[in-house]
Write a structure and sequence with these properties.
Pnp Oxidase, Chain A; about 170 residues; NADH-dep_flavin_reductase; Split_barrel_FMN-bd; oxidoreductase; Flavin reductase; alpha+beta; Flavin_Rdtase-like_dom
Length: about 170
Amino acid sequence: MDASREHPDRLVDSFREAMRHVASTVYAVTTNDEGRRYGILATAVSSLSFAPPSVLVCVNRTASLHDPLARAERFCVNVLGLGNRDVAEHFMRPEADRFAVGKWEEDLGVPVLATAQSSLICQTAHRQIFGTHTIFIGELLAASHREDATPLTYFDRNYIDISRAPERP
């Protein structure tokens, strides 16, 4: 079938199904706004440039983090490891205090998960609205990494352990 002629609703469903089968690292994106912590789980995060070191984060405009992040000067991308699954599951609860689980610290004015595989603290450099999302570009201010961590990975609506993937001949 010619995809350019596919009905828009079917195209969205096909896209959603295709993206569910792309394994993605799980991130907790966090910020502070007016003295309150905000955060969401995200998989739409990517490195952008090494000069300057930067990342992009795509956030749905209906997400609880969106408006605080749109006002924030800084944010943190916490790369979750396998040992942070409890944090990920807690972040999925809509009414929960997302920071009640995990060891959270403040660094450069943003919440940082002390046990994350990696943490990237960024200065907001640019915001761009596209469709249902805003793309936030952050210039790196600080980074930390734990050598012993394996990333928490999401695939087809489940967390998977990529360190146990079968070896190929």
